[in-house]
Structures are given as C-alpha cells and as structure tokens.
Write a structure and sequence with these properties.
alpha/beta, 5-stranded parallel beta sheet, 3-stranded antiparallel beta sheet, 8 strands, binds adenosine monophosphate
C-alpha cells in the first residue's frame, strides 16, 4: 500500500510514519529527512538548500522530485511507501502521479492529519531529539526519564532542528497554507482523501490511521 501523510509541520507525520514502518514493513520517504541528511553531510545540494530550510521556506520542486524519483526507482518496499512531507505543492503532486505510473505503482490513499495552529507552535518549539540515536522528545509532553539523558541509548547529546523556532515556524505555516493545503482539494477531488484528528494521543491517531488504511486494503 502506498500512502501520503499530509498535514502542517508538527502534525505528527514523522511519528506516525515511524510506527507504520515498524508495524507494516513500509518504507518512509521523508523529503525533510533526506534534505537534512544532505545538509549535514555537506553535499553540494545540501549546502545549496541549507539557508532555505533554516528559514522555513520550500526547496525547489525540481530538487525534491529528484530525491523521490531516486528512492522510488531504487528502494525495495514490500509493504509500500509512506510519503511524509512530500508532495508539498501541486506540481509535486502531479509529478508523484507520473513517477508512480512510471514504476507501475498506485497511490492508495492520502491521510490528512488535522491539528490547529496553537497546538503546532507548542509541539514544534518544544521538540528535540537525541543526536546519537534519533529518539524524539518534548520539553513538556515527553521529557527524558533522567534530565539530559536519552532513555533509549543513555547518551547526553540532545539537539533541536535549526528550523524549530517561532520565526521559521511562521514561514513554514505560511508555506503550508499557501502551497500545500490546496492538495487537500486535489486529492479530495480524486476521491483519495481521508482525514483524522491529529490532536488525539499518539495511540489514538495511530488507531485512526489504521482505520483509514483498512478502508483501502
Ligand atoms: P520537514 O522535515 O518535512 O518539516 O521539512 C523540513 C524542510 O525541508 C521544509 O521546511 C522545507 O524547507 C524542506 N522540504 C521538505 N520537504 C519538502 C518538499 N516536499 N518540498 C519543498 N521543500 C521541502
């Protein structure tokens, strides 16, 4: 099954995608993760997009479509793909349709995770991860058991995303409303859109997503 998780920054797409990877053997294709990897390893493309990402603006369609094409043609996804943070523009959505056709795959459903803006600001500005193992935390909702020490790997190497600050978040939200939210209408018109309440607990949201996927499996 190939699905898109659609929602504003901080809606919980990455958290839910990670669960689907565990539970359903799916492959997560997060363009944000791919771009951050390019940025931190200092590739030519990574250096080119660093400033754009830190400000919270969108990287060009050409770059992200290229990243997705590379994965779609090389990754082995028995359980299917989860598109997380892609597509973000109508041009990307059209390109995804063309790419899926080219590799003989179909898009099964699009799950919108609905969350209101005030919750997003709180979720995003408080989140941090372990720089060693990648475990995710939050200053208010999910503190490590021992202050400053990762529950999973025991290291004290926490970091925040460069764009998880109020200034960049404003730009990211604006980009979501201007460029990405039209995709809701796009996929609704194709009969592929389902919506879940992204404000519920992680378990609750996972249950709603499972229900949405059951309708198409
Ligand atoms: P994310 O981790 O999905 O929040 O993405 C982090 C940043 O990477 C975004 O604010 C954009 O600068 C860039 N980015 C990720 N995915 C895309 C995309 N599909 N189109 C354009 N820019 C993207």
């Amino acid at each position: 099954m190939n699905i898109i998780l659609l929602g504003p920054p901080g809606a919980g797409k990455g958290t839910q995608a990670a669960r689907l990877v565990e539970e359903r053997n799916m492959v997560q294709l997060s363009t944000g993760d791919m771009l951050r990897a390019a940025k931190s390893s200092g590739t030519e493309m990574g250096n080119m997009v660093a400033g754009v990402m830190d400000r919270g603006e969108l990287v060009t369609d050409e770059i992200v479509i290229g990243l997705i094409e590379e994965q779609l043609t090389t990754a082995d996804a028995a359980g299917g793909f989860i598109f997380d943070g892609f597509p973000r523009t109508l041009a990307q959505a059209d390109a995804l349709g063309v790419l899926l056709d080219k590799v003989g795959k179909t898009l099964d459903t699009v799950v919108e995770m609905r969350v209101d803006d005030s919750a997003l600001v709180k979720r995003i500005t408080g989140r941090f991860t372990c720089g060693n193992c990648g475990a995710g935390y939050h200053e208010e909702f999910k503190k490590p058991r021992v202050d400053g020490v990762c529950d999973e790997c025991g290291k004290s190497d926490f970091k925040k995303r460069a764009d998880d600050n109020e200034e960049s978040l404003k730009t990211r939200l604006m980009a979501y409303y201007k460029e990405t939210s039209p995709l809701l209408g796009y996929y609704y018109a194709k009969g592929q859109l389902q919506s879940v309440d992204g404000l519920a607990s992680i378990e609750g949201v996972a249950g709603s997503i499972a229900g949405a996927l059951d309708t198409v499996s």
